[in-house]
């Protein structure tokens, strides 16, 4: 009896294997037929030794992540293909990898509704139970709903509230040693960002510049992002994911957020009940307070999802961008001197939004930092139905390419930002002066573009300019103290594995 069951099991297994390979064969034939039907050129294929599952590609990428050389791995992999666009298998799924400006433009503007996010941000459960639908994860009507809640607030605060940064920046600058000792600017900007972002989001600062142990919530967010990246890589095998620390970090961050959310709804209820008795209490300007007035209290998880959809993409990105700019300035004394001059020319003028946005060299430094070390390495979307993209096909890569429904497309900002075809032979160098008179098109999109452009892009630029200006006003000299250089460790974007070790000279 047992031998008969074994024979049946073996036959069933062999049948499933045959069906799978027949499905792969039909997918290949169908893809080729549709490529011709849509008048597209053939797309170069990564030279797999495992063309079915793409295990070789997965292992190569995973090893690069583990060894903190993912950025150089991308440069090497694209160079080896000899093209800006190619396709590869990743655990059986077809992926399209492109550093073509025209593809970025199409996916961001004219075809933005054809390339969607929800299947790889929500439907696959990669971030469950941490978060659900929000402005950075949803599509369609729900995305419009989330965007309508978030965007007006960010636009208003970016212009109106520069003064809120002063006490946090004062505290951070006061913690910098002025006796020539080496310190890590990346740590200080990380704590600064947690303090400013918690006040901005929840109306109350975490105050971890004073109490460093309170950055535990930021470290928990890092664990959550790490786990989500692992789950995304596991793809169809996500059900095998076992990471108690990941779930523990989720519970910790949820508890942290729930406390603020409950307090906000309680305060809203009290204000409505007491009316004019609350008139002397300062009006709150944080995002949470704005949202509790739009989302009913019975939908608290929905509200939390809206905030995590903002907090996750911005987690550490502003602080890392600021520390990356300081990393570059410490290694480029000419740029530091020019920035110093522009800042000192301001004198004692108040640092308003318009004043910061009008600083020409400051904006060059900010743009060049985004270009050389972008926070968002790539834009990833899924083809909602059979469609095309304008570049990458044929022998010269100039013909359109076919994207089948379900294909995952990666548009690589990092490579576009360093492409000599777009930036010249010195594309890998940090040179703010290149921005003099430059009006880049879709090869420079640090915050994306089109309808889904990051709602906080103006806010990030304003905060960065404010901190760098205050830093220049307080210190006349800056010296790099880390000989190991920039080793990118991946979080939301790259940050320096070794920190940003510098020393300063006070005025």
From TrEMBL:
Pfam families in alphabetical order: p450
Transmembrane portions of the chain: 6-26
GO molecular function: heme binding; iron ion binding; oxidoreductase activity, acting on paired donors, with incorporation or reduction of molecular oxygen, reduced flavin or flavoprotein as one donor, and incorporation of one atom of oxygen
Cofactor entry: heme
CDD domains: CYP52
Main localization, broad class: membrane
Subcellular location: Membrane
Gene3D superfamilies, sorted: Cytochrome P450
GO cellular component: membrane
Topological type in the membrane: Single-pass membrane protein
Similarity comment text for this entry: Belongs to the cytochrome P450 family.
Descriptive protein name: N-alkane-inducible cytochrome P450
Organism per entry: Fusarium oxysporum f. sp. vasinfectum 25433
